[in-house]
């Protein structure tokens, strides 16, 4: 390794997290739009406004089961002194409204059925008694009562959903109700996760000897999938495997995430490979526990160089990589985690000039910091309820200070980066 080795440049003066975030956000422009079936649209980000071309409903309809009639004809009816109308007709949903309801008559009607001409109200079934074709009205119903008007749900010409909205299940249902069969959304980013290391066994393997099972591939794939990406994993690749260079150099993903081989050891070749095929923008970031993290641009796409330690990889994704993935899919860049503002149970220290990703637990409404060391101790993140970000300009927080906890359990209402 020479003094000018690309792997050492950033480690002499590590980049500020804010500078890396600004660079990532500038590159996190939404992908091109695509049309998808409604069955695939929930959770996707709408790429253009949607206005209705139709009224919903397009006809007057019954809002409950009962009898369609002219409301004024029920005035004065009581339980003890009912009025009598003649039953003519039976209107069902999906059928024609049938003949006009003439004065002195009524038609049986079901919820959702079209209201016949001449009728302007629906008398609830519990206010009526039917004997043959004689309908005894035992209560009043005002004109317009229990009737859904044309356009009551949606009026033609109304803009219903704005571009940038993360589509929820009810949004998809509304699109269907106005006759939209496909939604125009931003294309999901393609993410390739590559894990490396001679000691790393395939995910889910039983560890033996000095080998460990790959925790990074399922971890990072799950995070990227949560953020809307289509994820593919390769590896674990042995140190020096030529497939690592191929993964970094080729252009079949929007983001390549390399976990491992990213630091400054003799086998950490990922930064040099990225520099050979593109440009390393950052390598070495003032953040704990993910300081060896780097970012490069190869063939117009971002290659994220992450540490092999799982907690470091989690930290780097949560604070940095996730912003890019979410932005490419049209989501807001900001963290998708639900945030709670709670007091610290004890002091949390940090080093000035370094951003800390502090794993914490919540105990009786107070925030308990967990160990800040042990980047390979993934169980610490499992024991944690979330994390607190201590910014570089801060030397920590005193006991009882209110801090923002990014909770692992529970994201914002509409998933990652709701923009509407």
Q: And the CATH topology of the largest domain?
A: Molybdenum Cofactor Biosythetic Enzyme, Chain A
Distance between the termini: 50 Å
Strand order of the largest sheet: 7-4-6-5-9-8
Low-confidence stretches: none
Overall pLDDT confidence? 92
User: How many domains comprise the coordinates?
Assistant: 4
Structural class: alpha+beta
- For CATH, the homologous superfamily of the largest domain is named as MoaB/Mog-like domain
Structural write-up:
By secondary structure, this protein is an alpha+beta fold. The protein has four domains: 169 residues, MoaB/Mog-like domain (Molybdenum Cofactor Biosythetic Enzyme, Chain A), CATH 3.40.980.10; 52 residues, Alpha-Beta Complex (Molybdopterin biosynthesis moea protein, domain 2); 88 residues, Molybdopterin biosynthesis moeA protein, domain 3 (Beta Complex); 75 residues, Beta Barrel (Beta-clip), CATH 2.40.340. Helix content is 19%, strand content 31%. The protein contains eight helices and 28 strands. The strands form eight sheets. Strands 7-4-6-5-9-8 form a six-stranded mixed beta sheet, with no helix packed on it. Strands 16-13-17-21-20-18 form a six-stranded mixed beta sheet, with helices on both faces. Strands 19, 22, 24, 25, 26 and 28 form a six-stranded mixed beta sheet that branches. The two termini are 50 Å apart. The model has no long low-confidence stretch (mean pLDDT 92).
Task: Itemize the secondary structure elements and their pairings.
Elements: H1 6-12, H2 17-27, E1 33-37, E2 50-51, E3 61-62, E4 66-69, E5 83-91, E6 105-109, E7 121-124, E8 128-131, E9 134-137, E10 147-148, E11 159-161, H3 169-177, E12 182-186, E13 190-196, E14 200-201, E15 212-213, H4 216-226, E16 230-237, H5 242-249, E17 255-259, H6 270-277, E18 279-283, E19 287-288, E20 294-298, E21 301-306, H7 310-328, E22 337-343, E23 348-349, E24 355-363, E25 366-369, H8 379-383, E26 386-390, E27 396-397, E28 402-411
Helix pairs in contact: 2-7, 4-7, 5-6
């Amino acid at each position: 390794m020479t003094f000018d080795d690309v792997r050492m440049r950033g480690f002499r003066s590590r980049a500020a997290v804010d500078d890396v975030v600004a660079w990532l956000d500038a590159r996190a422009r939404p992908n091109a739009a695509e049309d998808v079936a409604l069955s695939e649209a929930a959770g996707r980000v709408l790429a253009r406004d949607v206005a209705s071309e139709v009224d919903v409903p397009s006809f007057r309809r019954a809002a409950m089961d009962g009898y369609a009639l002219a409301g004024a004809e029920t005035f004065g009816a009581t339980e003890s002194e009912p009025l009598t109308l003649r039953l003519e007709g039976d209107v069902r949903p999906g059928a024609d409204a049938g003949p006009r309801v003439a004065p002195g008559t009524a038609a049986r009607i079901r919820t959702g059925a079209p209201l016949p001409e001449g009728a302007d109200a629906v008398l609830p079934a519990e206010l009526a008694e039917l004997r043959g074709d004689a309908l005894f009205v035992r209560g009043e119903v005002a004109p317009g009562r229990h009737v859904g008007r044309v356009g009551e749900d949606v009026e033609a010409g109304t803009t219903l959903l704005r571009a940038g909205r993360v589509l929820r299940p009810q949004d998809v249902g509304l699109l269907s109700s106005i006759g939209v069969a496909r939604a125009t959304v931003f294309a999901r980013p393609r993410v390739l996760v590559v894990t490396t290391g001679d000691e790393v066994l395939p995910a889910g393997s039983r560890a033996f000897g000095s080998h460990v099972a790959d925790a990074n591939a399922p971890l990072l794939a799950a995070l990227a999938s949560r953020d809307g990406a289509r994820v593919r994993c390769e590896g674990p690749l042995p140190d020096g495997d030529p497939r690592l260079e191929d993964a970094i150099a080729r252009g079949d993903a929007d983001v390549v995430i390399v976990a491992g081989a990213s630091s400054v050891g003799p086998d950490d070749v990922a930064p040099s490979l990225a520099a050979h095929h593109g440009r390393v923008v950052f390598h070495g970031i003032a953040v704990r526990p993910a300081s060896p993290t780097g970012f490069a641009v190869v063939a117009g796409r971002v290659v994220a160089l992450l540490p092999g330690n799982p907690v470091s990889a989690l930290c780097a994704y949560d604070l940095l990589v996730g912003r890019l993935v979410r932005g490419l899919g049209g989501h807001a860049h900001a963290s998708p985690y639900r945030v709670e503002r709670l007091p610290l149970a004890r002091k949390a220290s940090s080093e000035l000039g370094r951003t800390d990703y502090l794993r914490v637990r919540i105990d009786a409404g107070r925030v308990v910091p967990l160990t800040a060391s042990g980047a390979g101790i993934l169980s610490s993140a499992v024991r944690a309820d979330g994390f607190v970000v201590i910014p570089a300009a801060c030397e920590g927080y005193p006991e009882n200070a209110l801090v923002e906890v990014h909770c692992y359990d529970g994201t914002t209402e509409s998933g990652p980066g709701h923009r509407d």
